[in-house]
Design brief:
Distance between the termini: 26 Å
Shape: elongated
Strand order of the largest sheet: 1-2
Number of helices: 0
Radius of gyration: 15 Å
Strand content: 15-25%
Helix content: under 10%
């Protein structure tokens, strides 16, 4: 997809219902998870909270 310079875009990746903290990759369940954006502003991320089932944690990068 080609986007003209100066065009405002929105990207959506992932899901807060992925169940990351319930995943088992062979070395134990995760105790923490961080979202990393490199060279990015005006973005946000939503993820589940490890210690509160059903609660969504929102991070904003402005």
């Amino acid at each position: 997809m080609t986007v003209k310079p100066g065009t405002q875009t929105v990207s959506i990746v992932g899901s807060n219902r992925f169940g990351l903290y319930g995943s088992e990759f062979g070395w134990g369940k995760p105790v923490g998870c961080e979202t990393v954006f490199i060279d990015c502003d005006e973005a946000f991320s939503m993820s589940e909270r490890r210690d509160e089932p059903g609660v969504v944690e929102i991070e904003a990068f402005v």
